[in-house]
């Protein structure tokens, strides 16, 4: 049973939280400043970054969804993944796409692919035999 924390102890928790925020800030700020030239490069080379990301996204997603569908049998998830990857590939590889379309395709493809992986994991958990771990 949880007991209420007296007000004097909650100040300790807030102080710990503020100290942790300070620590994260102090550790990350030098890293961010060091990476600024690289971050500027990322902004200037958006298309290159998207293409490199696809090199990782496509095989990892394909393997995860194919293996998942082989286990739980919900083929619709595989097709949702194919549609999502197609949106991402269209946004990254279609040279004459207007910028608004590129942003929309990238956003929708990313949300759709992430959602498909969540649904795949849920289907695997429902399918898994009792006591089996699903990573």
Automatic annotation (TrEMBL):
It comes from the Bacteria. It holds the Pfam family MerC. GO terms for molecular function: mercury ion transmembrane transporter activity. GO terms for cellular component: membrane. It comes from Sinimarinibacterium flocculans. This is MerC mercury resistance protein. Keywords: Membrane, Transmembrane, Transmembrane helix. The chain crosses the membrane at residues 14-40, 52-70, 77-94, 100-119.
């Amino acid at each position: 049973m949880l007991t209420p924390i007296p007000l004097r102890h909650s100040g300790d928790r807030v102080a710990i939280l503020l100290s942790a925020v300070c620590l994260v800030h102090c550790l990350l700020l030098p890293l961010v400043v060091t990476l600024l030239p690289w971050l500027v490069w990322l902004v200037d080379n958006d298309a290159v970054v998207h293409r490199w990301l696809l090199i990782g996204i496509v095989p990892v997603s394909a393997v995860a969804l194919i293996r998942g569908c082989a286990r739980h049998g919900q083929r619709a998830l595989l097709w949702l993944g194919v549609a999502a990857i197609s949106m991402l590939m269209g946004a990254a590889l279609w040279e004459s796409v207007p910028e608004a379309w590129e942003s929309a395709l990238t956003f929708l493809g990313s949300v759709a692919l992430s959602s498909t992986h969540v649904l795949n994991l849920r289907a695997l958990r429902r399918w898994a035999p009792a006591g089996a771990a699903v990573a």
